């Protein structure tokens, strides 16, 4: 039995909505429903009455619900104690960060913190956005750093998690220079000769933001998808080699732009095609954390006082 299933049941009991709980648990609704059914299979009884609206717990579900809360609280307490032993040795702060931010934003940001506060020891898990968010939800890290855009919000429970704004980031299309010093490719391109598009893989967070940006301008760009990946760094390398246009965060390309290796592609050399994203840091609220004076809590208080 996976403890995630117990957390799913507790969430469903509170929201009485499969769709809302799926968002809070950072999974699709079909996946959330499968996990509830898996818990019911383990329990050998129906736990949710799906014939009512909104859905409610059955008698068996009501019996398991308080026990699930108690089990989860015991596990969180035990984990906090174990982390306390580890923090007494090293005081390492755990971050979960999407790949792009781990490579672009985080190194410079943590360097600035170390210059001010000294001796900050960190451990970074570089993941996709979904897995990074789940690492925080499941208590596997101290902090989550992630992009935020209104079209793709992270559905983290505001009663359980705090958030601070670390900065802002521009996402825009870039490509290599042509021999004349202009962009190698144009936007919008000719329908008979579409510009090659270096795209994010289906499901990637930045890919959804790019789709939102393209849909908002209401102009056909005539892009031909020739390459896709989850990694913005891989898209940058392909753009540098002249393979096409890639939508990239400015922090990932500022050196290449300065060195005139990449250029931002504008619409018909006119308006900029770009969107602003926030860089946010999330932390489980104090009421859900046993230790108030660990290294992560101390750093959070310092961030609150300086941001």
Account of the 3D structure:
This protein is an alpha/beta fold. The protein is built from eleven helices and eleven strands. It has helices at 3-15, 18-24, 29-43, 59-89, 99-103, 105-117, 129-137, 205-217, 232-240, 250-258, 295-306, and strands at 48-49, 56-57, 92-98, 121-127, 143-148, 161-175, 195-200, 223-229, 245-249, 263-264, 275-284. The strands form two sheets. Strands 3, 4, 5, 6, 7, 8, 9, 10 and 11 form a nine-stranded mixed beta sheet that branches. Helix 1 packs across helix 2 and helix 2 (18-24) packs across helix 3. The longest helix is centred in the N-terminal third of the chain and has 31 residues, at 59-89. The radius of gyration is 23 Å and the shape is globular.
């Amino acid at each position: 039995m996976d403890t995630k299933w117990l957390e799913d049941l507790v969430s469903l009991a509170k929201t009485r909505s499969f769709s809302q709980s799926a968002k809070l648990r950072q999974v699709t609704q079909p996946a959330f429903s499968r996990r509830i059914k898996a818990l019911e299979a383990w329990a050998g009884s129906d736990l949710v009455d799906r014939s009512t609206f909104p859905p409610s717990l059955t008698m068996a579900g009501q019996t398991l619900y308080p026990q699930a809360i108690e089990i989860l609280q015991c596990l969180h307490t035990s984990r906090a104690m174990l982390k306390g032993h580890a923090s007494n040795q090293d005081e390492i702060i755990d971050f979960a960060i999407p790949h792009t931010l781990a490579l672009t934003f985080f190194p410079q940001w943590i360097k600035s913190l170390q210059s001010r506060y000294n001796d900050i020891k960190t451990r970074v898990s570089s993941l996709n956005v979904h897995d990074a968010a789940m690492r925080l939800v499941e208590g596997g890290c101290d902090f989550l750093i992630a992009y935020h855009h209104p079209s793709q919000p992270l559905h983290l429970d505001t009663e359980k998690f705090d958030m601070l704004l670390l900065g802002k980031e521009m996402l825009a299309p870039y490509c290599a220079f042509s021999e004349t010093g202009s962009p190698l490719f144009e936007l919008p391109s000719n329908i008979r000769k579409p510009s090659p598009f270096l795209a994010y893989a289906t499901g990637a967070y930045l890919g959804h933001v790019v789709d939102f940006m393209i849909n908002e301008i209401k102009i056909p760009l005539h892009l031909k998808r020739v390459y896709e990946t989850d990694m913005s760094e891989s898209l940058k390398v392909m753009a540098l080699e002249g393979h096409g246009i890639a939508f990239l965060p400015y922090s990932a390309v500022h050196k290449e732009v300065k060195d005139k290796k990449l250029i931002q592609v504008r619409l018909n050399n006119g308006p900029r095609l770009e969107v602003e994203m926030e860089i946010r840091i999330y932390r489980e609220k104090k009421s859900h954390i046993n230790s108030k004076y660990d290294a992560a809590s101390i750093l959070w208080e310092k961030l609150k006082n300086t941001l």
